[in-house]
Amino acid sequence: MAVGDVSNALGHLGLLDASGLAAVVFYELLAWDPARAEVVLEDARRRVADIARQGVRTPVRLAAHGPYSVSPSLLRALAREGGPAAIHVAESGAEERFLNGGDREWSAFLGRRGLGHVSFMPPQTTPVRYLESLGALHPGLVAAHCVRVDADERALLARRGVFVAVCPRSNRRLGVGIPQVPEMLAAGIEVCLGTDSLASADSLDLLQDAAALHREFPALEPAAIVRMATATGARALGLDDLGEIATGKRAALAFAPGAVADPLDFLVSGDARARRVEW
Q: Could you give the C-alpha distances from 70 to 29, 74, 88, 131, in angstroms and in order?
């Protein structure tokens, strides 16, 4: 079972339950062979049901890894059930070229993984438009990365009610570019902040991604970045009672010590270190 990168990262700024565990777990599916779609989905359903029967309070939601690692059949099946809950999308040029039918490198990789026999007709479109054609863009979907999206796709994501989780440190380390966050916000997209995984980031410290985003877009108000890491992140996970210090919200808090003139500037400076507040 794969813990979703976004849910794991957002836990570091107050999105924790009383036991200290991540408040949401994404069970991430990878299955490129369409012949295995139903088997993989049924196995995932069974595992999630087993977890629920054990009395685990943390919600477990079915997610898809990416449009290049999950078959169209499985993506459609998830969409019919209102999913996927999350997906990595529009992260790199290689992903885009593969869906356009012109990336031999990714096709060769699939061959080395024993999947060269799988027939796939490239949709010859972009990752976001491909997901739209499969019915996989839906309100509440957490779309990680979205580095390579154009103006029309930003409007589409906003219209569909998709949350975009940006992961600037991961994107910079992998050399895939940086998502155009100001343009996303201007389009009305709910943008939240994530870390991606330890495979592409040095840590799961969300404040370091807040600082990285501030370096990339110094004109972006610190308050907007902090909101991405807290209130918007909570809504992205369906945890509307978290993410803000406000009447009626649950007191799941983090504390970043420091004697500073402007707390919001401090939180995106790279010097802040959060620790959980026990109660």
A: 7, 6, 11, 11
CB distance 93 to 102 below 8 Å? no
Q: DSSP character for 230?
A: T
What pLDDT does 57 receive? 86
pLDDT along the chain (279 residues), means of 10: 33 37 82 96 96 90 96 97 97 94 84 91 96 98 98 98 98 96 98 94 94 97 96 93 85 72 92 76
pLDDT value at residue 12 = 31
Among residues 132, 133, 136, which one has the least CA distance to residue 82? 136
| pLDDT on residue 278 | 66
Which helix (H) or strand (E) is 183 found in, with range? helix 181-187
41: nearest Cα among 58, 27, 59: 27
Terminal alpha carbon distance of the chain: 31
Q: Is 65 helix (H, G, I), strand (E, B) or coil?
A: coil
Catalytic residue among 91, 132, 190, 216: 91
Whole-prediction pTM = 0.89
Alpha-carbon Rg for the chain, nearest whole angstrom, is 19
Clarify whether 221 is annotated catalytic: no
Going by C-alpha positions, the residue among 188, 90, 184, 192 that lies closest to residue 145 is: 90
Residue 248 near residue 241, CB atoms below 8 Å: yes
Residues with Cβ within 8 Å of residue 178, at least 6 apart in sequence = 147, 168, 171, 172, 216
Other C-beta atoms lying within 10 Å of the C-beta of residue 62: 21
Report the 10 Å Cβ neighbour count for 225.
23
Predicted local confidence at residue 23, as pLDDT: 79
pLDDT of residue 105: 84
